[in-house]
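Agenda item 2: nicotinamide-adenine-dinucleotide complex prediction
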Amino acid sequence: MVSIGFIGLGNMGRPMARNLLTGGHVVKGFDLEPAKLRAAESDGVIRADSVAAAVTDADIVISMLPAGQHVREVYLSADGVLGSAKAGALLIDSSTIDVATARNVAAAAAKAGFEMLDAPVSGGVAGAEAGSLTFMVGGNDGASRRATPVLAVMGRAIIHAGPSGSGQAAKICNNMILGITMIGVAEAFALADRLGLERQKLFDVASKSSGQCWALTSYCPVPGPVPASPANRGYAPGFAASMMLKDLRLAQEAAAAFGAATPLGAEATALYTLFSNSGRENTDFSGIFEMIVGK
Ligand code: NAD
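Presented output:
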């Protein structure tokens, strides 16, 4: 049994904390929103009224926050994690944030005597609920090994990607592939429609040919070929376009900061901006098919 301080009990954090409880750990949690805190309390999380109160006794601190600014605030502010956690606590940030913030906060943690990992996830809310997330871990080997038994309660795959920031790097590279390939698959179906090629026939061919990819075979953006994909339920998310756009923008920021050429990533960012600005930011990201066919 490990004593865990959990900060950020939103869509992802709440089910992750619930799985930690099921795994026999003690979880003390804090969220700025009282309703989120109450909901987690009803699951068995011990309610804390501040970040400091949630982490003072914790062996491991886990945070699941919206963006880099929230992570800086939670860790670096005067009554934040670095000023309140007990000596020897392991700090794990599972939010999806920019690589630079992940590295800077981990460096500040090291200076304060703490080991810190960036450990963003893929798998979405369904994966958080099922305890089947993939964790992409950045930080030193020892800290990664120490975190693994606890992460394994919330996830099925735990991949140590390299030193600090590598988890975030892996996450944004992966999601840039996904954004680009989803648009490619959507364009192919749009072209097939114009050519009078049945959608199912394109799927049958491409899923067994060199066009095969996850966006096609697991998350097909047209209704029919993959019954579980959001296209079959009016593009209810799933993975909202706003989330995809956030990750694509993080990838573009990183590309600009580190001098990588990512022209298709830039184009995907522009297309998802258009899609979101058309009022569809809460639509599943595969709904971009509809924008491409002019709906
Ligand atoms: P969310 O907005 O539902 O939850 C974030 C929570 O953090 C909120 O409840 C908010 O009140 C709380 N918070 C913000 N600032 C705080 C502070 N200073 N102190 C305490 N609590 C604070 O977001 P989410 O969907 O749970 O996503 C969390 C992270 O996980 C994001 O970085 C997101 O990109 C990433 N992620 C989400 C998904 C998904 O499908 N939802 C999938 C993979 C990764």
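Discussion summary: The chain has a mean pLDDT of 97.
Owner for follow-up: CH.
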